[in-house]
């Protein structure tokens, strides 16, 4: 659908939360291929991607189109919505809200395949239940890595000597509990469609949200978050779901070849002390 509004997505492709967005764009055909993703090309002129790169030397972001940088202080992903009629630009700052907006505005293109959000109001609310508890699990994962990974103390705000094994293990257990909740709440849709998002035919917003986390944490910390404290058995439905997700047509070209994780971010599982 062509929109009169001009949209800009500021994406650091290599990152954690931006992955949620580009998984969505590739699945819905809004970006035609991983090669186009790297160039920031979409199939709709009203949707632009301004790719971000980490400037290690200067300690900030560089933008593929420097004339249109993300708003000061925004994290990535961020979406700008510019109305040429009024000259006003508004912003959406959270990955979960950006997905909802994109699906509302661009989700009904025929070529885009099935809807990524359900129609039934209870399914819609349950999808948000699931994404909400996923986000709590992601918060837990951040506390775990801050306490478990010495090298992160350079920027995490937790000094090396203040890192705590108890805090790390507590956060990891909290994450496993929240992921078990996701698995339980999605049990019905996992059984009927194979996906986490209730009431959709194919992968939906909850699926993009969790797959991004699973992938990024493995790439960066050599951490399979579905291993759980009790081993793989506990989250085995999520293990099977992730294998299914990796079967999506764009996965290999994008995740194994195009968006290559920077070596300086590949800390490996040895980086985790607990
Ligand atoms: N809750 C945010 C988190 C976004 C986030 O933390 N993004 C990271 C990159 S993956 C980032 O931009 N960090 C730098 C910053 O916060 O300035 C979301 O879901 O979009």
UniProtKB/TrEMBL annotation:
It comes from the Eukaryota. Gene3D superfamilies: 1.20.1050.10, Glutaredoxin (3.40.30.10). This is GST N-terminal domain-containing protein.
